[in-house]
Amino acid sequence: MRTVVITGGPCAGKTTALGALRALSERAGVPAIFVPEAATDLIIGGVAPWTCASMLEFQTRVMALQLEREAEAMSQAEAAAQAERRANPDVLVVCDRGICDSHAYLDDDDYARALTANGLAEGDVLARYDAVFHLETIAKTSPEAYTKANNRARFENASEAAAVDDRGVAAWAAHPNFHVIPSYADFERKTAALVDAMREFAGIDLRERTQSSPVLVSACLLGEPCRYDARSVPCDAVRTLGRDHELVPVCPEQLGGLPTPRIPSEIQPDERVADREGNDRTDAFLAGAQAALRIAREHGCRKAILKAKSPSCGVHEVYDGSFSGIVVPGQGITAALLADAGLEIVDETQVRP
After folding, report:
1. Residues 304 and 343 sit within 8 Å (Cβ to Cβ)
2. Tell me, what's the pLDDT at 82?
3. What is the pLDDT of residue 148?
4. Which pLDDT score is estimated for 150?
5. Which residues are CB-contacts of 348 (< 8 A; sequence separation ≥ 6)?
6. In the list 78, 118, 135, 267, which could disulfide-bond 12, CB 3.0-4.6 Å?
7. Burial of 255 (C-beta count, 10 Å sphere; 0-12/13-18/19+)
8. What is the pLDDT of residues 193-237, one digit of tens each?
9. Three-class DSSP labels, the chain
10. Is the pTM of this model over 0.90?
11. 2-202, what's its fold?
12. CA separation for the pair 334, 9 (Å, rounded)
């Protein structure tokens, strides 16, 4: 789980950028939870700096609501990450502003008071977030284009907005992963710069994952001599997919610690895995399956192409355990685990050139 803050000065395009991030996260298959801005909702609801006794009182309330919303988002993210059938447990929490934004409206003493009132220590606030991205207000580059008309909660004029932007940068500057996105004339360029910064500095890739998504592949299908007989069974149709996809090779049996070459194994009627000499290899096959799933998750794989009939990788059929060449309906140990984890699994016979 990673938590990022998208912040910026008034009229920086933050709302539009967040909408774009929401759409991109859905297309990229990145589970994301968005935390709405506390200050805007309070102002629209009738609690504003001009209705409170002081800016300190208002920002103290902003912090309280922000903390409540972040706690709920974290709870949702943890539940999503623990879902048994999720192929990629990484969940992104995106905060529309964060605690430190209050510092842009308060002097150091009042900011410390607001933190204390909410049970926070100044040294701990920055650590709540993995990365912070500040969108520069248009008021600094094109003040004539600055407007309050598109936000009911915006009350600053252009010069005030520019000053707030500067104070916002100062408020977050101590964060070790803080980045400023300049105010480009073309907003699409600004959004692209934000997405690129998120990928470079926070490891969050929101590029659409269709043709280019990584695919887990049984290594023997790619020409690796890792079968029990130290041979491979290369499949041209599978290897051709490497033009459009990152292919991630795995050999679960090797990952489970079995040597190459090795005595062939089959799944027995009692669901154990035994080799032809009767040695129980179940633990090695289970360990290899877990390692393959871990690699799939690390690479963000949502699909696997596996070797047909293998006791590890068989998708539709496996040998019956008698070592007589008879196949029965069923799945290999790794194939079953990957399917349970939510990956789409196919074998090489289902791949077309």
Report:
1. yes
2. 65
3. 65
4. 61
5. 218, 221, 233, 235, 237, 238, 305, 306, 307, 308
6. 135
7. buried
8. 888 888 887 777 776 554 457 899 999 999 999 999 999 999 999
9. CEEEEEEECCCCCHHHHHHHHHHHHHHHCCCEEEECCHHHHHHHCCCCCCCCCCHHHHHHHHHHHHHHHHHHHHHHHHHHHCCCCCCCCCCEEEEECCHHHHHHCCCHHHHHHHHHHCCCCHHHHHHHCCEEEEECCHHHCCHHHCCCCCCCCCCCCHHHHHHHHHHHHHHHCCCCCEEEECCCCCHHHHHHHHHHHHHHHHCCCCCCCCCCCCEEEEHHHHCCCCCCCCCCCCCHHHHHHHHCCCEEEECHHHHCCCCCCCCCEEECCCCCEEECCCCECHHHHHHHHHHHHHHHHHHCCCEEEECCECCCCCCCEEECCCCCCCEEECCCHHHHHHHHCCCEEEEHHHCCC
10. no
11. Rossmann fold (3.40.50)
12. 50
Q: Which amino acid is at 264?
A: P
The tokens of 122 are what? Answer: 């100044």
**Beta pairing class for 178-181 and 327-329:** unpaired
- Domain range summary for the chain, segments of one domain joined by +: 2-202, 215-350
In sequence order, the 6+-apart residues with CB closer than 8 A to the CB of 267 are 273, 311, 318, 319, 321, 330, 332, 333
Q: Tokens for 129, please give them.
A: 């977030």
Pick the closest to residue 225 from 253, 261, 252 (CA basis).
261
Q: Which bin fits 329, alpha (ψ -120 to 50), beta or left (φ > 0)? A: beta
With 0-12 CB in 10 A as exposed, 13-18 as middle and 19+ as buried, what is 105?
A: buried
